[in-house]
Amino acid sequence: MTMRYDVTVIGAGFAGSLLARLLALRGRAVLLVERDVHPRFSLGESSTPLAALSLERLSARYQQPDLRALAAHGRWRRELPGLRCGLKRGFTFYRHRPGEPFPTTQTHEARMLVSASPDAEVADCQWLRADVDTHMVQRARAAGADYRDRFEVVGVEPAGERLRLRGRYGGEDVEIDAGFLVDASGAGEVLARAFGVEHEASEPDFSSRLLYGHFEGVRPFAEVAAGDGATLPTGPYPDDWAAVHHLLDEGWMYALRFDDGLVSAGLLIDDAAVASGASAGGGDPELRWRAVLSRYPTLESAFAGARPLPPGIRATGRLQRRRRTAVGERWAMLPQTFAFFDPLFSTGLAWSLLGVERLATVLETGRPTSQSLREYDALLRAEADQQQALLAAAYAARLDFRVFRDVSFLYFACASFEELRQRLLDGADAVDTIRAIGRARFGRVARLSRRWRHELDRVVRSGAGPGSRDRGRRFR
Known about the structure:
single chain, alpha+beta, disordered C terminus
């Protein structure tokens, strides 16, 4: 059986499904394939103001009001009540020390709150991806995209001026004749494997692995810390209605609270900590989870009555990956397929949505030019450089909260400036062409990347500041 499409998208997460939907709305013949079946668990749950701006632009450009609803907590709750979400007012950071209750006092030496919105109405959201991704697939199908789940990609090869995708579907061998392929498979890296795209030669300066799950019965950390004697002066928002980051000697933990009380939590284990003996590297994920939390009394208390939902706590291999290119002849990768480093600072959703904007723009009218694909690739590589430099410095700096705070301020200042620039200067039509998001700004993006590398390297080399309890710790 052979099927012919203008564009085939591999992977029906939110980004792949959204791209398929937008192209179908423009009259393209689109196939969306997924190896799994929805609803399903997926990581990447914490949105940001830049992600909200992207959703609002897409909503206006393609006349899709549900995308605008996803951009703000108040609108989401009113207009999409069947999709579960969580209120995210900002970014909360805590620095923990092994064997000690959480220590914050009036001087905030171990606590930082970064507000991202003035109130709950316009705040960002935590996305329950099982709900959101299912919604996106349904909307893609309603727009006219052909959808096949439980689809196994067997191989991809050139076929004249097109590409041939071979797969297994419904117990049969199938062939897809595609004018263009988009890889939205994330860590599946389907096209990189099919075409032998090598990994980037320069490795990130850090390496981490993830233990993760969804939990019921997790107590708000601020409530537990206050009960242990910590002084938590009132901040710009309640501490737990945020992307909560717990900085540990072993790595760091995120906790994302949903409106119904569910908590998505993940423990990022720094491989350097495993090598130094500060953390156990292998074994049962739940035992490893408990072993780390047992070293931090207040954090352990917050999870004392928690129950992981089936299938329990899971583990990944090394998270960091990056390919040398994101494009080829008649194919392209979405950002999170091209590269992934770490969920610190919640950059994933915004980067994915920006990739959707760019590819939708160049694919909606026909086959993209070689120039537009080169520009897309150059932007992704520059943005990957920025993330890699930022995250490497943040991993090293987490051992000294004062240095980590400075690194974080650099990121949040840049992100806030970009948000204001888009809102005040670009307006709703910021994505008319690939050049509008691409070449015209690429010089600034590249210069910013180089400045970040220089400044972050300088901060990390400087070590801990005077008076820090972490002074003298060794930075990699």
